[in-house]
Design a protein that fits this description.
This protein is α/β, with parallel strands linked by helices. It has 14 helices and 12 strands. It has 2 domains: 134 residues, 3-Layer(aba) Sandwich (Rossmann fold), CATH 3.40.50; 136 residues, Response regulator (Rossmann fold, 3-Layer(aba) Sandwich), CATH 3.40.50.2300. The protein has a 6-stranded parallel beta sheet with strand order 2-1-3-4-5-11, sandwiched between helices. Helix 3 runs parallel beside helix 4, helix 4 runs parallel beside helix 5 and helix 6 runs parallel beside helix 7. One of its GO terms (molecular function) is carbohydrate binding.
């Protein structure tokens, strides 16, 4: 019986110790789980486009969700995709001295780097989204959330040639952003991948203003199609233009599917273009993450002293076969 009593005492002691450990663990867990843990941080977030912009809306919704989840105090900056305006707004943001800034990389490294250096001297944390700014990240720190431009563009070019059987002698029109080499690297990589397959590529300069009003590109696109009557495909540099594919094709006198329309992103407009047969392929770059993750990372840096995150948001391809899977989310401004 002594051994039994000893065993009972040992079991009781183990149970007591386990209970104490569980209580300590529970207390530790309760202390680690914090509601609105970033509520003291002030952040300026660059949406890129104007309010209501198809791509910018998804980015904005991602940022708003991150602010709601973390409690961060976020000021949203809308730029209408105008690089000079965006640069001036960044200058104003640095002067306002928030705890962190999430910046679109569209103005380019020459414009952003001096302001990023000022921000670093002032102790302002920086994140970048959508277009990378590697020189700023290398010299003064920060992280990047978005697609890697050249790899994503090249993958799209390879997929175009494979999926649609483009080969030597075929003609494709590729619209390239004309304002910055880093931003244009995506579509240039698409063009090069097509050329590697033997396709003749016609490069067409795209203007930044077309993202805000894609109808401005109608005369340029129709002229390019008239000048290249054998063109089989056209690649657009942004979701705004891809979502306007029907307007371009109708202006050129084309029927759905007569020209292969390709580009980037999803939106309610692009979903409709897939449904109506005007669009055949899009490379997804998950703009919701480009809104959510920069704010999350800034909060982690400001509150916990963690390192900035870097995430490649390239997610694959949206096609006529799978677009329905994201259609409802796109209509809600989430994809």
């Amino acid at each position: 019986m002594r051994h039994l009593r000893t065993g009972l005492r040992g079991a009781a002691a183990l149970a007591l110790a386990a209970s104490a450990f569980a209580g300590a663990a529970s207390a530790a867990d309760d202390g680690a789980l914090r509601d609105k843990w970033c509520s003291k941080a002030h952040i300026r977030f660059f949406v890129g486009g104007a309010e209501g912009d198809a791509f910018g809306t998804v980015v904005y919704n991602g940022a708003r969700q991150a602010a709601a989840d973390t409690g961060a105090q976020v000021d949203y900056v809308f730029s209408g995709w105008q690089n000079e305006k965006m640069t001036q707004q960044l200058r104003e943001a640095v002067a306002a001295h928030p705890d962190g800034i999430a910046m679109m990389g569209h103005p380019g490294e020459a414009a952003i780097l001096p302001l990023a250096q000022q921000a670093a001297k002032a102790g302002i944390k920086m994140m970048y989204q959508n277009v990378p700014v590697p020189a700023a990240v290398d010299k003064v720190g920060g992280g990047y959330v978005g697609a890697q431009q050249a790899p994503q563009g090249h993958a799209l070019g390879v997929e175009i040639a494979r999926r649609f059987g483009l080969k030597s002698g075929d003609v494709a029109i590729v619209m390239l952003s004309s304002n910055d080499l880093i931003r244009a690297a995506r579509e240039e990589a698409t063009a090069k991948a097509l050329e590697e397959a033997g396709v003749k590529v016609v490069r067409l300069a795209s203007q930044a203003e077309w993202a805000a009003d894609p109808n401005l590109a109608i005369p340029v696109v129709t002229a390019a199609l008239q000048a290249n009557p054998t063109a089989r495909a056209i690649v657009y540099p942004g979701g705004q233009q891809l979502g306007n594919a029907a307007a371009y094709m109708k202006a050129a006198g084309k029927k759905p599917g007569e020209i292969i329309n390709i580009g980037f992103d999803t939106s309610p407009q692009i979903v409709q273009m897939f449904k109506d047969g005007w669009v055949q392929l899009a490379a997804d770059q998950q703009p919701f993450q480009q809104g959510y993750l920069p704010i999350l990372s800034l909060c982690e840096q400001i509150v916990y002293g963690l390192a900035p995150i870097n995430v490649d948001t390239s997610a694959g391809f949206v096609t006529p076969d799978n677009y329905a899977a994201v259609a409802d989310l796109a209509k809600q401004g989430l994809r």
